[in-house]
Write a structure and sequence with these properties.
With 315 residues, this protein is an alpha+beta fold. It is built from nine helices and eight strands.
Length: 315
Amino acid sequence: MRAWDSLSDDERRLYARQMEVYAAFLEQTDHHIGRVIAYLEELGELDNTLLFATSDNGASAEGGPFGSFNELQFPNRVQPTVDDNLKRLGEWGGVRSYPNYGWGWAWAGNTPLRRWKRYLHQGGMSDPLIVHWPQRIQARGEVRGQYAHVVDVVPTVLEALGIEPPAEINGVAQRPIEGVSFAHTFDDAEARSKKTVQYYEMIGSRAIWHDGWKAVAEQEQGVALTDALLASQSWELYHVAEDFSESVDLAAQHPEKLRDLIDRWWVEAASTTSCRSTRACKRGWPSRSRWPPARPTATSTTRAARRSSSTPPST
């Protein structure tokens, strides 16, 4: 990742424009969220409306080193150059564009977390979540550190509203809702989380969180996913309750903890609809008896150790 001071004037002009467009999109999003808020206020229902505001995955590096004028260049493995992008600079952010900024901005946006969208280190999966419900939530402007996943939002809403999910709809039996409620944390910052485990899988990459520990194996993308490739994956281990930015890989120091988390990943994968429909699980499941190698392989971190945050993005 090149330092800003090392870039040419043309490169700075291009990357500045990319961030201007991103900032403008956020401004537009904020404006239209504001319209919803204003309408609820006009109806006199704002204080009694339960609102959740969050984002989707970590910052994206799909623009590559130079950014892209059209998002569809990425899945088609087309990487424009700085000169290519400069030719479209006047249209960047307009109706003819579908742009992504360069990955330097993704790196900056995810700091101090590792990696970005499509990966399962914290930089790819951590997002802020704002919960607003003045009539029922007494806390104001506080931060919560309990672990929560997007699958926990539905059970939280149901508990907050006192609604039991139906066992069937129109004669069709419903699967049990995945996730656990965090409604009990609304007015108690020190409340113990009801969540103990969370499974992740993304394009062959796998991770699991359990009681403050996280194991993660990142799959190289753009290559054929084979049994041999899956079996050769190295798992990393982080105590994210104390090392939220995943600065210190503890796989070598705690091999039994890593082994336990990998075994838990398979248990969770077996009961998760999304995994049963993905290639990694379909291909990997028959090989469970030889998964992973007998001794977990510690992998070195790819970024310098950085400060650790003990408080994750929270409600």
